[in-house]
Amino acid sequence: MADQQYFYGTGRRKTAVARVRLYPGNGAVVINGRPLEEVCTRDIHRAEVLSPLRRIGREGRFSAQIKCEGGGVSGWAGAIQMGIARALVASDPLVKPSLKRGENLLTRDSRMKERKKAGLKRARKAPQFTKR
Fold first, then answer.
1. On the CB side of 98, how many CA atoms lie within 13 Å of its CA?
2. Which pLDDT band, with edges at 50, 70 and 90, does 2 fall under?
3. Among positive and negative, which fits the CA dihedral 69, 74, 75, 80?
4. Of 60, 68, 65, 71, the residue nearest 25 (C-alpha)
5. How far is it, in rounded angstroms, from Cα 100 to Cα 121?
6. pLDDT digit string (tens) for 62-110?
7. What pLDDT, on a 0 to 100 scale, did the predictor assign at position 1?
8. In whole angstroms, what is the distance from residue 58 CA to residue 53 CA?
9. Which residues, in sequence order, are CB contacts of 87 under 8 Å at separation 6+?
């Protein structure tokens, strides 16, 4: 698989980063050397990962080799989704409008974990107030 021509896309979500290589193939998705079903045990994460391919109707036409780091499985799923969408646009620029329609798969979700503030227990939780 490594010597074939591929399309590349990078996706990010929270602190997760996914580097996606799309090869013309049979639909096998490999994440960090393990199959998709082993990494994403929840159906909702698997559906999220494959949604860009499903949206343009090319589910079985591409195989993906993905390297993920940072974050957890939910962040990985969002990052992979964006990476696959960007790689699809690299392979065929005509699919860009269909990937942007509805929930935009090409735009980074900017929501991050809020930092802890001084004098508080967490980002917003204050210590219990005692009047007397």
1. 15
2. low
3. positive
4. 60
5. 40
6. 999 999 999 999 999 999 999 999 999 999 999 999 999 888 999 999 9
7. 55
8. 5
9. 7, 8, 9, 20, 21, 22, 64
What's the start-to-end Cα distance of the chain, in Å? 70
**Neighbour-count burial for 105-125, b at 16+ CB within 10 Å, e otherwise:** beeeeeeeeeeeeeeeeeeee
Count other C-beta atoms under 10 Å from residue 66's C-beta. 25
Please give the helix or strand (H or E) that residue 63 lies within, else none: strand 62-69
Q: 111: Cβ–Cβ under 8 A, 6 or more apart, which residues? A: 14
Structural domains for the chain: 7-100 (3.30.230.10)
